[in-house]
C-alpha cells in the first residue's frame, strides 16, 4: 500500500504524487460523525445548560473544536455532528465558528439533532442508535468509510493514519486504542488482541480488566474512535436496531457482537497522535471538575503536555473580535499583573494579581483582588478585594467584592460545589444570579 505520510527527502516525486492521490481519495470517500449529544453529568453544574462538547476549554476553545479540528487537519471535510442534550450552545458555536468549509467542494459540517426520525419516534437511545436514526441522511453522502468520533475529549490525532491502517488490514471495523494503567481500565472498554492486533475480546467497563500480554500493569482500552466500512456499518446498525435486548450502544452491544464474527482491529493511538510531549500520547477525558481544572491549568506550564502553539496542526474555533488584554496600575499595593498565567483577549487586570491561572476572554479582575491556580471562563467580573484560589468560575459570574473562596473548603461547601481534590466550582446561580440560559 502506498504511504500517505508527507514527502520525505528519500521519497521519489512519483511516490509522493501517488501517496497524495491516495490520501485525497480516502478523504473524499470518508464521512466523519461526531457524537456530541452527551450531557457529561460528572461536570455537575457546568453542564446544567449545555452539552459537554460545548464546554469552554483552553482559554478560547470549546471541547468539540478538538475532534472537528482533527478532522479538518486530517483532510476529512465531510463532517456530521450528532446533537441531543441541551444543544443550543453547541449549535450556535458550530454555526459561528465552523461555517468556513466550502459546499461547492462538498465540504460541510452538518448538524444532526435528535428528531425522532424512526417509526418508534424515540430520542437517541445510545451511541449506535444515534447513528442508526440518521442512516437515511448518511446514505445520501455515498461514503465508503464512516469515522465515528466522540465529541467530548481533548487530543490531537491524524485520522488519516487510522483510516490507512484500516484499509491496509482489510478490516470491517477498526478501534483506536490507548494503553493505560490497569487500575484505571474499569472505566473503559478493554480489548484483547493477537499478534496482528486483531481484536479477540472486548469487555465494556469490566470490574476486573484483563492486562495486556507481557505488561501486567497496563490494559488496552477503546478511545471511542471507530472506523467502519460504510455498507458493513449500516447492515450492523439495522441488525442491532431489530434486537430488542440491545441497548443500541457501540461499546455495550455492537463491538462485543462483532469481535468474534468479523475482522475488527485495534489501532495504536501512539501511531497517529500529533505533538506528543516526551513521546507520551496526549488524550484527556475532562469529564470531572478535577480533570477539567487540571487539563486547563497544565496549559500554563512552561512546557504543556498539549501543544496549542503548533502552526502545522492548529485548533480551529470561533474567533471573537476583541481588543488585546490590558494590565493597568503600577502602585506597590495596586499593580495589575499576571504571572505564569494565560490571559485571553478582552481581559482587563486592573490593579490585581493573577498567578498560575487561565483566563478566558472578557474577564475583568478589579483592584486589590488576588486570583491563584484558577480557571476563569468568559465574561466574568471579579470584584475588588476578592481572593480566589483553586477555583473554576463559570461564564457570566460577577464575583462580589471581598469574596474569599478556596481557603476554607467547609465554608465553601455551604454555597458552592467543592470536589474531592478541593477544587471549587462557582456559578451565577450559586451567587444568586439566574442567567443559566446564557451558556
Automatic annotation (TrEMBL):
Keywords: ATP-binding, Carbohydrate metabolism, Glycogen biosynthesis, Glycogen metabolism, Nucleotide-binding, Nucleotidyltransferase, Transferase
Reactions the enzyme catalyzes: alpha-D-glucose 1-phosphate + ATP + H(+) = ADP-alpha-D-glucose + diphosphate
EC supergroup of this enzyme: transferase
EC code: 2.7.7.27
Pathway terms, separated by semicolons: Glycan biosynthesis; glycogen biosynthesis
Binding site for alpha-D-glucose 1-phosphate: 124, 189, 204-205, 222
GO BP of this protein: glycogen biosynthetic process
Site feature (Could play a key role in the communication between the regulatory and the substrate sites) residues: 84, 123
Highest taxon in the source lineage: Bacteria
GO MF annotation, one: glucose-1-phosphate adenylyltransferase activity
Glucose-1-phosphate adenylyltransferase/Bifunctional protein GlmU-like C-terminal hexapeptide domain mapped to chain residues: 323-426
One protein family per Pfam: NTP_transferase
Signal peptide: none
Nucleotidyl transferase domain residues: 32-299
SUPFAM superfamilies the UniProt entry points to: Nucleotide-diphospho-sugar transferases (SSF53448), Trimeric LpxA-like enzymes (SSF51161)
Similarity field: Belongs to the bacterial/plant glucose-1-phosphate adenylyltransferase family.
Entry function: Involved in the biosynthesis of ADP-glucose, a building block required for the elongation reactions to produce glycogen. Catalyzes the reaction between ATP and alpha-D-glucose 1-phosphate (G1P) to produce pyrophosphate and ADP-Glc.
Assembly and oligomerization: Homotetramer.
HAMAP family on file: GlgC (MF_00624)
Protein name from the UniProt record: Glucose-1-phosphate adenylyltransferase
Organism: Nitrosomonas supralitoralis
Upper classification of the organism: Bacteria, Pseudomonadati, Pseudomonadota, Betaproteobacteria, Nitrosomonadales
Amino acid at each position: 500500500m502506498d504511504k500517505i505520510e508527507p514527502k520525505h527527502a528519500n521519497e521519489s516525486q512519483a511516490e509522493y504524487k501517488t501517496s497524495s492521490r491516495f490520501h485525497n481519495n480516502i478523504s473524499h470517500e470518508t464521512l466523519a460523525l461526531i457524537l456530541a449529544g452527551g450531557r457529561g453529568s460528572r461536570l455537575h453544574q457546568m453542564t446544567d445548560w449545555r452539552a459537554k462538547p460545548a464546554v469552554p476549554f483552553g482559554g478560547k476553545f470549546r471541547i468539540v473544536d478538538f475532534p472537528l479540528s482533527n478532522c479538518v487537519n486530517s483532510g476529512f471535510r465531510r463532517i456530521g455532528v450528532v446533537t441531543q442534550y441541551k444543544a443550543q450552545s453547541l449549535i450556535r458555536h458550530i454555526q459561528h465558528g465552523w461555517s468556513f468549509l466550502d459546499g461547492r467542494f462538498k465540504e460541510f459540517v452538518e448538524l444532526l439533532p435528535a428528531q425522532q426520525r424512526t417509526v418508534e419516534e424515540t430520542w437517541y437511545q445510545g451511541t449506535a442508535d444515534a447513528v442508526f436514526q440518521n442512516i437515511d441522511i448518511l446514505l445520501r453522502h455515498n461514503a465508503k468509510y464512516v469515522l465515528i468520533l466522540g465529541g467530548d475529549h481533548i487530543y490531537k490525532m491524524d485520522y488519516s493514519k487510522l483510516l490507512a491502517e484500516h484499509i491496509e488490514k482489510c478490516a470491517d471495523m477498526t478501534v483506536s486504542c490507548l494503553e493505560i494503567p490497569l487500575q484505571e481500565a474499569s472505566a473503559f472498554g478493554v480489548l484483547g488482541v493477537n499478534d496482528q492486533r486483531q481484536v479477540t475480546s472486548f469487555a465494556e467497563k469490566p470490574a476486573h480488566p484483563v492486562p495486556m500480554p507481557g505488561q501486567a500493569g497496563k490494559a488496552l482500552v477503546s478511545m471511542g474512535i471507530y472506523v467502519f466500512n460504510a455498507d458493513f456499518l449500516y447492515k450492523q446498525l439495522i441488525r442491532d436496531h431489530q434486537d430488542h435486548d440491545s441497548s443500541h450502544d457501540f461499546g455495550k452491544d455492537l463491538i462485543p457482537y462483532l469481535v468474534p464474527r468479523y475482522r475488527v482491529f485495534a489501532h495504536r493511538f501512539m501511531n497517529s497522535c500529533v505533538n506528543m510531549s516526551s513521546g507520551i500520547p496526549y488524550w484527556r477525558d475532562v469529564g470531572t471538575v478535577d480533570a477539567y481544572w487540571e487539563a486547563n491549568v497544565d496549559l500554563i506550564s512552561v512546557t504543556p503536555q498539549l501543544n496549542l502553539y503548533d502552526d502545522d496542526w492548529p485548533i480551529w474555533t470561533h474567533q471573537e473580535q476583541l481588543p488585546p488584554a490590558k494590565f493597568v496600575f503600577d502602585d506597590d499595593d495596586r499593580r495589575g499583573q499576571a504571572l505564569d498565567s494565560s490571559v485571553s483577549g478582552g481581559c482587563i487586570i486592573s490593579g490585581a494579581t493573577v498567578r498560575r491561572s487561565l483566563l478566558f476572554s472578557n474577564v475583568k479582575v478589579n483592584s486589590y483582588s488576588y486570583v491563584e491556580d484558577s480557571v476563569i471562563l468568559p465574561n466574568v467580573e471579579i470584584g475588588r478585594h476578592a481572593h480566589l484560589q483553586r477555583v473554576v468560575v463559570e461564564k457570566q459570574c460577577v464575583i462580589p467584592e471581598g469574596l474569599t473562596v478556596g481557603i476554607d473548603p467547609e465554608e465553601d461547601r455551604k454555597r458552592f460545589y467543592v470536589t474531592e481534590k478541593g477544587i471549587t466550582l462557582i456559578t451565577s446561580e450559586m451567587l444568586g444570579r439566574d442567567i443559566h440560559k446564557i451558556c
